[in-house]
UniProtKB/TrEMBL annotation:
Pfam families: adh_short (PF00106)
InterPro entries xref list: NAD(P)-bd_dom_sf, SDR_fam
Keywords (A to Z) from UniProt: Oxidoreductase
Protein family according to the UniProt entry: Belongs to the short-chain dehydrogenases/reductases (SDR) family.
Top-level division of the source organism's lineage: Eukaryota
Name of this chain's protein: Putative retinol dehydrogenase 14-like
Keyword Oxidoreductase: yes
GO MF, one annotated term: oxidoreductase activity
């Protein structure tokens, strides 16, 4: 009985601390009229909330996702909540590099502007493989966005000043990259951590690659949010995780604040390649700031997606 009371008291304490913790909100009121924003995975979670917020600021918002039905439903919701009709969707499957190439070809033909690219879509810790034979986390979370960004970089440069936001996670700190096995797919959580570390290196190297082109980049950790990533798991796991998320995680609307901040803030533009948490720059672990590793990952990624 004592153990039960201890557990209950601990949970209550954690809940109170969570409620007391204040999260920063984006207070920059800059509008994005005439600008085009592309958000991968913008049909749910943080991506959808960011789409609503940026559409409210006047941006033309395009959400890219693989399920047309879910995308259409999300577009209707985003239009309703943002009171903007300038929202649409395009089909994109980041687990298929051919789909990424076809998407970029279509986008460049249809859209004359790209001012903000938000690499938001991500796969959770699942043991699965992409159509091209990469582990799902590494293939979708890193390689898919790597190819997407590179193929759209010319349009970003034409529309400069422009921005690239890549969502990552603080779990990056639990793993390092192994260049002998970048396609690691053994322990799901560690696979996810490596993909999120790759996102950080990618953002840093992209900042160096685009230096002088007025294209700034940001690695964004939205916090631990109450998203629907558990849909890939069993019913029991989903139920347990939903309880934990309700107690300790923040709503997706709050998580999207740092995305919005990095999309509009002049202050953020001074920290290209930086890692942002809670609407401000944050310090990375030393190993995650290794420019040599970032460059090596970029070159390896070019080969893997056949850009060279």
């Amino acid at each position: 009985m004592y153990l039960l009371y201890t557990i209950i008291a601990s949970l209550v304490s954690f809940f109170i601390l969570k409620c007391m913790k204040k999260r920063r909100y984006c207070t920059d009121l800059k509008r994005l009229d005439g600008k085009t924003v592309l958000i991968t995975g913008g049909n749910s979670g943080v991506g959808k909330e960011a789409a609503v917020a940026l559409a409210m600021r006047g941006a033309r918002v395009i959400i890219a996702c693989r399920d047309p039905d879910r995308a259409e439903k999300a577009v209707r919701e985003i239009k309703s909540r943002s009171h903007s009709l300038n929202v649409l969707h395009m089909e994109l499957d980041l687990a298929n590099l051919r789909s990424v190439r076809e998407f970029c070809k279509s986008f460049l033909q249809r859209e004359k502007r790209l001012d903000v690219l938000v690499n938001n879509a991500a796969m959770p810790s699942v043991l699965d493989w992409t159509d091209d034979g990469f582990s799902m986390c590494f293939g979708v979370n890193h390689l898919g966005h790597f190819l997407l960004t590179n193929l759209l970089l010319s349009r970003l440069k034409e529309c400069a000043p422009s921005r690239v936001l890549t969502l990552t996670c603080s779990t990056y700190k639990y793993q390092k990259l192994d260049f002998q096995d970048l396609n690691y797919n053994l322990l799901p959580f560690f696979t996810y951590c490596r993909s999120k570390l790759a996102n950080i290196y990618f953002s840093q190297e992209l900042a160096r690659f685009a230096e002088g082109k007025d294209v700034t980049t940001y690695a964004v950790h939205p916090g631990f949010v109450q998203s629907d990533w558990t849909c890939h798991y069993s019913f029991l796991f989903r139920m347990l995780t939903q309880v934990i998320m309700w107690m300790f995680f923040v709503p997706c609307e709050v998580g999207a604040q740092t995305v919005v901040y990095c999309a509009v803030s002049d202050e953020a533009a001074k920290h290209s390649g930086g890692y942002f948490v809670d609407c401000r720059p944050s310090t990375l672990r030393p190993f995650a700031r290794d420019a040599g590793v970032a460059k090596k990952l970029w070159e390896a990624s070019e080969r893997l997606v056949k850009l060279v």
